[in-house]
Write a structure and sequence with these properties.
48% of the residues lie in helices and 18% in strands. The chain is α/β, with parallel strands linked by helices. A four-stranded parallel sheet has the order 2-1-3-4, sandwiched between helices. β3, α3 and β4 form a beta-alpha-beta unit.
């Protein structure tokens, strides 16, 4: 994790955009940090937003799909998947990533990807935007979703 080259977040007007944060419930401290970072960017930029929680990362895609069906311009998907001693990590990580990609492409709208796939809990704490964290992946995911929604709006006229 270097963080080198990461763009700055916020600093633009996203008023008029409707965003849904969809977050899992596993690893509460890390997830809550991701949510706080995303909410901070959404509030700073003036985007309308709401938070919904799902049981885990696997369920993020179907909730994102429902958010788009309900009129969201963008979704910020936040979750934490930590490697264990079985292949479960690989299956859940791949299914979550593939599902969110499919939902985004099918809807033609952005999903800010804030799903952390980690070898251990410390990596998540380092990326969650908490005091002492080196990165804020929740803020980065929200920023990416907003900026992409604005690009899509401009391309569609």
């Amino acid at each position: 994790m270097s963080g080198a080259g990461a763009p700055s977040t916020g600093g633009f007007d996203a008023s008029g955009l409707n965003v849904v944060i969809v977050a899992g419930t596993w690893h509460e401290t890390i997830t809550n940090g991701l949510i706080a970072g995303a909410q901070s960017v959404l509030e700073e930029t003036g985007a309308n937003h709401r938070l919904v929680r799902v049981p885990g990362s696997f369920e993020l895609a179907v909730a994102a799909q429902a958010a788009f069906a309900g009129g969201a311009d963008a979704v910020v998907a936040l979750g934490v998947i930590i490697r264990g001693g079985t292949p479960h990590f690989e299956y859940v990580s791949a299914a979550t990533t593939d599902g969110l990609t499919r939902v985004s492409l099918d809807a033609g709208k952005p999903v800010g990807f804030g799903v952390l796939t980690l070898d251990d809990e410390q990596q998540g704490l380092d990326r969650a935007g908490l005091e002492g964290s080196k990165e804020d992946k929740g803020a980065e995911a929200a920023d990416a979703a907003l900026r992409t929604a604005q690009v899509i709006r401009s391309l569609r006229g």
